[in-house]
Automatic annotation (TrEMBL):
GO terms for molecular function: deoxyribodipyrimidine photo-lyase activity; DNA binding. Its cofactor is (6R)-5,10-methylene-5,6,7,8-tetrahydrofolate; FAD. It comes from Desulfotignum phosphitoxidans DSM 13687. It comes from the Bacteria. The lineage of its organism: Bacteria, Pseudomonadati, Thermodesulfobacteriota, Desulfobacteria, Desulfobacterales. GO terms for biological process: photoreactive repair. This is Deoxyribodipyrimidine photo-lyase. It catalyses: cyclobutadipyrimidine (in DNA) = 2 pyrimidine residues (in DNA). SUPFAM superfamilies: Cryptochrome/photolyase FAD-binding domain, Cryptochrome/photolyase, N-terminal domain.
């Protein structure tokens, strides 16, 4: 077996100790990890299918009521699923896509399954879905963690205070999980099995049948969905951007970043693939490599730790007591500027740097991480109350970012209000919450070059000219 035992969790072992007999296939219920390579859940399911002498079927439940998702998100996801379908078929594995509530789809397809394998999303609704399937399935249900490098509970069994507390825990076990994941040959094909599956070879046609919020347009010009696009972009980053990564993390006028967060969010690329790729670079790039690993594993898995051990991760109530107190002390401080949510969306504030960041978000579905911090801090400064600022920031984050609605983004919003941070010098409105100023951007980077870059990029969208990020 090529899957580390710590990744594997039996969800209903109290009811089932072995696969159901006289069934037609093993089912991998794919939901979070939407890829055909570097997928521990898929390879574990393939191994089980071979052991049982059965074909492997992959099932996906396509719901048009996914929380906070819109046309932008569905377009990217369906483009990726179309590519995944082809890659799976090349291995003799049929991808069955059914419209419906995902746990209902899993239970429907699982009726003829000897075993159901599922991947691991860590948000509340994803955990609820798995619980419903485990409770009602007529066969064993096994969860395999594959969207983190180190399984969440292996890293630590409690909510960590900050990166400095989880970092040594992750480094202690990291070598055990930085292992390649070979593809397993299937002994039996499932391509000849008959299912009433949606034809996703034309993602746009499928998308047009769904009842979606269509007010946020797709961004396929900048981020086409699919594993091959993620891999191509990552290889370009390794060749051109990594050498500057550690020095340019606060230089938004540059593009020396991986742009992997949308692909990671939809499970179209594996964090293990990225980690192994960057570990294999020239030793002279060790500083840049370490900086990338810090973001990919330490900071990202700190975010997964936060949502896993914090049930109300999307609530203002999650911020630490010291942060609540200091914000409450300054809630009635005068604000020089107050903006409505629509004014923020329209990027019509007095701050040209912030407006450029908002334009990058609405035009491309992405924002340089350094600007994300500044963007969020200013919403706190320009809102009538901290709670309203939190809710506005989260709503915009989930609506426009391709990687919104993700453990990383929920944690990023909470960080703006003190999660994983400490108290700083006290000031108006912010109290002891960390502050960011336009003068800091001007001092640390070529912020006008960033503004010009985004104006050019958004103009390309409006004119429908192709533009490569």
């Amino acid at each position: 077996m090529t899957t580390h035992p710590a990744r594997i969790h039996h969800l209903n072992r109290d009811r089932f100790q072995k696969p159901a007999p006289n069934k037609d296939y093993v089912l991998y219920w794919m939901q979070q990890s939407q890829r055909a390579v570097f997928n521990h859940a898929l390879e574990f399911a393939a191994d089980q299918a071979n052991r049982l002498g059965l074909p492997l079927v992959v099932g996906f439940g396509l719901t048009d009521t996914y929380p906070d998702a819109n046309l932008r998100h569905y377009t990217f996801m369906l483009e990726g699923l179309a590519e995944t379908r082809t890659a799976l078929a090349d291995r003799g594995i049929q991808l069955v896509v059914l419209k419906g509530h995902p746990p209902d789809v899993a239970l429907d397809l699982g009726g003829q399954a000897a075993l159901i394998v599922c991947d691991a999303g860590y948000l509340r609704h994803q955990r609820l879905w798995r619980g419903q399937v485990a409770k009602n399935a007529g066969c064993p249900v096994i969860l395999v963690e594959t969207d983190v490098v180190v399984p969440v509970a292996v890293a630590t069994t409690k909510k960590e205070y900050a990166a400095r507390t989880i970092r040594p825990r992750l480094h202690k076990v990291l070598a055990d999980f930085l292992m390649p994941l070979p593809l397993k040959d299937l002994k039996h094909s499932s391509l000849n099995l008959s299912f009433d599956s949606l034809d996703i070879t034309d993602p746009q046609a499928v998308r047009d049948t769904l009842s979606l919020d269509r007010t946020v347009p797709p961004v396929s010009r900048f981020f086409p969905g699919g594993t091959s696009h993620a891999e191509k972009r990552f290889q370009t980053f390794l060749a051109n951007g990594l050498k500057n990564y550690d020095r340019h993390s606060n230089q938004p006028q540059t593009d020396d970043i991986s742009h992997m967060s949308p692909y990671l969010h939809f499970g179209q690329i594996s964090p293990l693939y990225l980690a192994l790729g960057v570990m294999d670079v020239d030793p002279s790039l060790s500083d840049a490599r370490d900086a990338f690993i810090e973001q990919l594993i330490i900071r990202r898995e700190l975010a997964f730790n936060f949502v896993y051990y914090t049930p109300d991760y999307d609530s203002f109530d999650v911020i630490p007591g010291w942060a609540k107190n200091t914000l409450a002390d300054h809630e009635t401080d005068p604000r020089d500027h107050l903006y409505s949510e629509q004014e923020l969306v329209d990027a019509v504030t007095h701050d040209p740097y912030w407006n450029a960041a908002m334009m990058e978000m609405t035009c491309t579905g992405f924002m340089h991480n350094y600007m994300r911090m500044y963007w969020g801090k200013k919403i706190l400064e320009w809102s009538p109350s901290p709670k309203q600022a939190f809710e506005t920031t989260l709503a915009l984050n989930n609506r426009y970012f391709l990687d919104g609605r993700d453990p990383n983004s929920y944690t990023g919003v909470a960080w703006l209000y003190g999660i994983h941070d400490r108290g700083w010098a006290e000031r108006a409105i912010f109290g002891k919450i960390r502050y960011m100023a336009a003068s800091g951007l001007e001092r640390k980077c070529d912020i006008q070059a960033y503004v010009d870059k985004i104006k050019h990029r958004c103009a390309a969208v409006k004119s429908k000219n192709l533009y490569e990020i």
